[in-house]
Amino acid sequence: MKCLDCQNDLVRLPTTQGPDLDVCAFGHGLWLDAGEVNCFVEDYLSLKQAVGTGGGVAIRTQATCPRCAIQMDSESVAGTAITSCSLCHGWWLAQGCLTQLNDSYKGAAVAIRIDEQKLYARATARMEALRHPSLHQPSPRKTDSGNLWFWSLFFGLALGIAGIVFVAGVQKTVHTSRWTEPADALLLYFLIGTGGSLGLFWYGWKAQQRKRLIAGIPTSPIRSLALGLVEISGQAEPEIELLNSPFGGLPCIFYSYAVEERVRSGKNSRWNTIASGTSEQPFFVRDATGRVLVVPTGANLVLPDERISRTNWLGDLPPAAVAGLRRLGIATHSWIGSKTLRCREALILPEESLYVLGTALEHHGMSHHIANESRLYIGSSRDHAFIISDRSEKHLLSRLTWQMWAGFLGGLALIAGCAAMILDQT
């Protein structure tokens, strides 16, 4: 696309707010596709109401739309000029206009910060790099020094405690007058405790990484999706027709299931999973700007509200659950009598609110002139997380927070307990 003022090619830049921006490297302005301003302005609804109804008069200009090549209209909103296309609904904003709109329309819980000077500086540097690639070598990646120091101290402390426990255990073993058979139970407890604490640390670290990923990606309007990792929220819709849940027969858009059998071993018993799976039919997620297809294969599901059917005190399952087990080829009886089974299913219902974090991919053979919501779909990727949840982003962040601290504090408590046990015996 060309700049409306200097007719030079616009430079496409990624942004932390979501979609890529087409920016003039000479500082004349930037282009926003339809709906993309939602990612850069907090109170988008008020801005949307002000455009066309704010008392200003739209004036036809001589500038032509860089996408549609038709004449554009200019309108004054919040003391700044917005040049828009009546066909593709894209906006051209001169330098400083996006900052002015961001300052005028506030109201969201999380502030959106815009630094247009850095944006145009990046565009200039990108243009120079494209013109003279040999003069611009990639700069080393910056690291978060504060975060690095925190984790260095944290794991240094954990490893220090583990080292003390290990040395104390070795000393006790070496100074023992004779080896016992089987091996010393205290040393065995130490090894198990150390391995468990490292596992808890790893669990907490993974939860912390996922929390940072979810919190760091803004929710994008579906109409403005770009290729790559995206986050959306909206209502679920079927692609073709509704499905029936496997054990309850309820109409749904998506389901996951698990069948567990109660297995006894001596005086103990446990539930053993003998079958599990999910539906594979894609579905749509719709928001106020459009809808996009979601292919759920390989997704990490967060659907806490499970429906559970289990055998009663007579050993009978509900008829719908029995029919579902037969469709799956699972017998409800064995040669010694009825099995003790538990059938679990989690559903996504029509019009249910969903949160999706996944990779926006392009349908093969689709024209670039087709709207994003038809040209792209969201699915799994080897490089990115894929989460489908019927809980809000706020709920997911809260859940990951307690999982993170449970892992970290549990790991420290386990290490401290091992240390106290070993030191008490030396």
General description of the model:
The chain is of the alpha+beta class. It has two domains: 125 residues, no CATH class; 175 residues, no CATH class. The protein has eight helices and 22 strands. The strands form five sheets. Strands 1-2-3-7-6-5-4 form a seven-stranded antiparallel sheet. It has a five-stranded mixed barrel with strand order 8-13-14-21-20. β1 and β2 form a beta hairpin. The longest helix is centred in the last third of the chain and has 33 residues. About 6% of the residues have low confidence.
Outline the fold blueprint.
Elements: E1 11-13, E2 21-23, E3 29-32, H1 44-50, E4 59-64, E5 71-77, E6 80-84, E7 91-94, H2 97-104, H3 116-131, H4 145-175, H5 185-216, E8 228-238, E9 243-244, E10 251-252, E11 254-265, E12 268-278, E13 283-287, E14 290-294, E15 300-302, E16 306-310, H6 319-327, E17 333-334, E18 337-338, E19 341-348, E20 353-362, H7 372-375, E21 376-379, E22 387-389, H8 393-425
Parallel strand pairs: 14-21, 15-22
Antiparallel strand pairs: 1-2, 2-3, 3-7, 4-5, 5-6, 6-7, 8-13, 8-20, 9-10, 11-12, 11-19, 13-14, 16-19, 17-18, 20-21, 20-22
Helix pairs in contact: 4-5, 4-8, 5-8
